[in-house]
Specification:
The chain is about 45% helix and about 15% strand. It is an alpha/beta fold. The strands form three sheets. A six-stranded mixed sheet has the order 1-2-4-6-8-11, sandwiched between helices. Strands 7-9-10 form a three-stranded mixed sheet. It has two domains: about 5-225, 2-enoyl-CoA Hydratase, Chain A, domain 1 (Alpha-Beta Complex), CATH 3.90.226; about 230-290, Lyase 2-enoyl-coa Hydratase, Chain  A, domain 2, CATH 1.10.12. Mean pLDDT is about 95; it is low at about 290. The protein is built from twelve helices and eleven strands. The longest helix has 19 residues, at about 95-110. A hairpin with a 2-residue loop joins β1 and β2.
């Protein structure tokens, strides 16, 4: 991505009909869901969501991303079921229709899973209702905060299907209570921010609503943005690897990873800052030909 304009301008250019992208602090991107009236996801919305994160992944001056809703009353109502009519255009033959449906679901999964693929940490700030697809979105993020007014539901069984965009794959891995995960997925009952914290779905409950939880998320984002970029990207990558691999495999992989990453100038910059008692200034992840 070219660096001939400011980060704020480049991030703003990623905005679309359903999502607003801004730069509220140096190296921080704020991605706001903004499809009125209730942030219900139809095909263009989830495709835009995936595109925004894939584009942010290529932005070398971003170091952390915050996801929130721009709407004052809620995070998302989930799927826009009125938009599912597009599947009516699939082939009438059951086998071909199944293949087309699987491809559609896989594309949807990839879009909503884009924050997990993104090399930079993603913090989600939830307020109001986060229903159905909202849980898929949240569980694909690295750090999850909720306002005290947040209300959650794994809603899919109420509409006749098993959650298929990420909740059933990720929620058991981020939560600390397998029994409660199954209860919530099988009953579709609402649960509060306090119960979400008990479950492990969120790590912090912030008293208030949208403004308060977004402020808390941005404060954490600013703190992370001051850390060495190579270390932050590596930490996220290795944590995801650890989740999906046995301990010894992760230890071996980490040794190989750091054999390269320990050569970064970031370590020298961090040590120099510690000695001079000045805040460290780290290079972006972009190439700097003059310094090579």
């Amino acid at each position: 991505m070219p660096n001939d304009n400011t980060l704020a301008q480049r991030l703003s250019a990623l905005s679309g009909p359903c999502i607003r992208v801004t730069c509220p602090a140096p190296h921080v991107a704020l991605v706001e869901l903004s499809r009125k009236p209730v942030n219900a996801f139809h095909d263009p919305f989830w495709k835009e969501y995936g595109r925004v994160f894939d584009d942010l992944s290529l932005e070398p001056d971003v170091r952390v991303i915050v996801v929130a809703s721009a709407l004052p009353k809620l995070f998302t109502a989930g799927i826009d079921f009125t938009a599912l009519g597009s599947m009516a255009n699939f082939d009438k033959d059951p086998a071909r229709r199944a293949i087309q449906t699987k491809e559609h679901i896989s594309m949807f999964q990839r879009a909503i899973g884009a924050p997990e693929r993104c090399p930079y940490p993603v913090i989600v700030a939830v307020h109001g209702a986060a229903m159905g697809l909202g849980i898929d979105i949240i569980t694909a993020c690295d750090i999850r905060y909720a306002a005290s007014d947040a209300k959650f539901s794994v809603k899919e069984v109420d509409v006749g299907l098993a959650a298929d965009i990420g909740t059933l794959a990720r929620l058991p891995k981020v939560a600390g209570n397998e029994s409660l995960v199954r209860e919530l997925a099988l009953t579709a009952r609402n649960f509060s921010a306090a119960e979400a914290a008990q479950l492990g779905l969120v790590s912090k409950v912030v008293e208030g609503s949208r403004d308060e939880v977004v402020k808390a998320a941005l404060e954490t984002a600013k703190l992370i943005s001051q850390k060495a970029p190579v270390a932050v990207v590596g930490t996220k990558h290795l944590l995801l690897h650890a989740r999906d691999h046995p301990v010894q495999q992760n230890l071996d992989y980490t040794a190989t990873w750091n054999a390269a990453m320990l050569q970064s100038v970031d370590m020298a910059d961090a040590l120099k800052a510690a000695k001079t008692k000045k805040p460290p200034v780290f290079r972006s992840l972009a190439k700097h030909p003059a310094k090579l």
